[in-house]
C-alpha cells in the first residue's frame, strides 16, 4: 500500500538541526574578541605607544573578521537549507 504523502527529507532535517546549533553558538563565536578588544582599547592594559596600538588594531581587525565569518557560516547553512527540499515524494 502506498500513499501520496511526502516523507521528510533527512538531509533537510539535518541542515535544519545544524542551523539551529550554529545559531545557538553564533553570538559566543562572533563576540569572542569583544572583551579583549575593549580592554585593549581602554589603554590601561599595555604600555608603549606603538606596540599597544598595533596590537589593539590587530584585535579589532580579527574581531570584525570573526563576526563576519560567523555570519557567513549561518548564511551558508541557510543557503544549503533553501536548496534542499523539506520533503521527498515516494519516487525519490
Task: Give descriptors for this structure.
rod-shaped; two-stranded antiparallel ribbon; mainly alpha; 92 residues; 3 helices
Description:
The chain is mostly helical and 92 residues long. Helices cover 71% and strands 4% of the residues. The chain contains 3 helices and 2 strands. It has helices at 10-30, 34-42, 49-83, and strands at 7-8, 87-88. Strands 1-2 form a two-stranded antiparallel ribbon. It is rod-shaped and about 70 Å long. The protein starts with 6 loop residues before the first strand and ends with a strand. The model has no long low-confidence stretch (mean pLDDT 89).
Low-confidence stretches: none
Choose one word for the global shape.
rod-shaped
The number of E-state strands comes to 2
How far the N terminus sits from the C terminus, by CA atoms, comes to 17 Å
Name the average pLDDT.
89
Tally of alpha and pi helices: 3
What's the order of the H and E elements? Answer: EHHHE
Share in helix: over 70%
Question: What profile does the largest beta sheet have?
Answer: 2 strands, antiparallel
Strand content: under 5%
Gyration radius, rounded: 22 Å
> Strand order, biggest sheet?
1-2
Structural class: mainly alpha
Question: TL;DR?
Answer:
The protein is mainly alpha-helical. It has 3 helices and 2 strands; from the N terminus they run βαααβ. Helix 1 (10-30) runs antiparallel to helix 3 (49-83) and helix 2 packs antiparallel against helix 3.
Amino acid at each position: 500500500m502506498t500513499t501520496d504523502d511526502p516523507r521528510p527529507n533527512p538531509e533537510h532535517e539535518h541542515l535544519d538541526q545544524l542551523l539551529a546549533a550554529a545559531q545557538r553558538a553564533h553570538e559566543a563565536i562572533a563576540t569572542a574578541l569583544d572583551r579583549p578588544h575593549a580592554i585593549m582599547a581602554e589603554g590601561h592594559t599595555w604600555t608603549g605607544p606603538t606596540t599597544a596600538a598595533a596590537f589593539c588594531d590587530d584585535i579589532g581587525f580579527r574581531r570584525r573578521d570573526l563576526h563576519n565569518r560567523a555570519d557567513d557560516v549561518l548564511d551558508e547553512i541557510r543557503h544549503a537549507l533553501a536548496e534542499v527540499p523539506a520533503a521527498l515524494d515516494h519516487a525519490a
